[in-house]
Write a structure and sequence with these properties.
Chain lengths: 207, 207
């Protein structure tokens, strides 16, 4: 597994965040309206053509494969392609995950039309997606950990709208970190609870 | 839970599929290049402005809330906003899920840069996302079912690229349908296995 180091300082990092973050935000809004638009046929066809033109311009220079996980020389980790928290990934809400007072991880975010499963409700798989990320981050504060098992219990539907995810370490046994987490709706009800076992990968042991 | 019926025939359904499907496909390509582009600052800024313009045009007329689940008068179900299989949802790869010879469900699809977690690998939560969908569809061939529990075991990393998901009913006990499923990499190895319990919702019982 490769973690390239980019030769950029804090100013250049901030410049790139300010450039690529808003680009991804505009794409997030486009995703939403691509689902919800009731525009006429000509408008839709013209929109598709314009998007193809923009994509072509952006494609002139691009990296091979995914964005990966990159570091700056000062050790800042850039997970900008991450499907849940990536600054440049319009699929990601994106989650901003912060350390909570109890030492666990917490994130408040909003899930709109693009995250729907049953009518008006967050897709059950999207609940799993965000809980995997937040549980994984709770497990990985000191060392990287990959998901070993993840068990989800759906207690009630999660309405589209504001959502909170929380996770914290339950215990550590050797290379296994046991994590528990929950998803909450806007009224503070637990909608989904999660138990995960995260594994310290072989390449990170002995570090 | 509401399931609107749209007054459209097969021709109009086909027209809308042919209009909105390609629009979402162009947005999928834009998502990919938004992550991977190494274009210069002016190109990025101009791209963001053009996308905002397109979004504004598409936004002139739009539905309230999510797309939901709609039916045509002839009973065709439109889950076009679905986060995994939605024709109009650019977050969705989208999965086309088909009945397999064993009576279960099967889907072949490709996951690119937008679905990345660790470098070069599918995000563990994305594995859960697609397995929830395919397991849920295996559970719901006759009646609708919502996820009750979902347990995932990550057996090996899933590289970005072609992926297969399969799921089938293990047994049915009252309102609970027990489903098993797997994710496979391009070489046919099982990368993630899943066990799910899907629940027939109260509003669908007695139908």
């Amino acid at each position: 597994m490769q973690f390239p180091v980019e030769d950029i300082d804090a100013d250049e990092l901030a410049r790139r965040e300010a450039l690529f973050g808003p680009l991804a935000d505009t794409v997030r809004e486009l995703i939403d309206v691509t689902i919800r638009s009731e525009a006429d046929e000509d408008t839709i066809l013209e929109a598709a053509q314009r998007i193809r033109d923009v994509t072509k311009r952006l494609n002139d220079r691009r990296c091979e494969g995914g964005f990966g996980v990159r570091f700056t020389e000062h050790g800042h980790m850039m997970t900008w392609g991450n499907a849940v928290s990536g600054l440049r990934n319009a699929i990601a809400p994106p989650l901003v995950v912060e350390q909570a007072a109890d030492g666990g991880m917490c994130s408040d975010f909003t899930l709109g039309a693009a995250y729907e499963g049953p009518p008006g409700l967050v897709h059950g798989g999207v609940c799993a997606l965000v809980l995997d990320q937040v549980c994984g981050m709770a497990a990985s504060t000191a060392k990287p950990n990959l998901t070993g098992t993840l068990s989800l219990r759906y207690r009630r539907p999660t309405p589209l709208g504001p959502v909170r995810a929380r996770a914290r370490i339950d215990r550590i046994e050797g290379v296994k970190t046991f994590v528990v987490g929950e998803l909450y709706d806007a009224d503070g009800n637990v909608t989904v609870s999660a138990e995960g076992v995260f594994i310290l990968p072989a390449w990170a042991r002995g570090r």
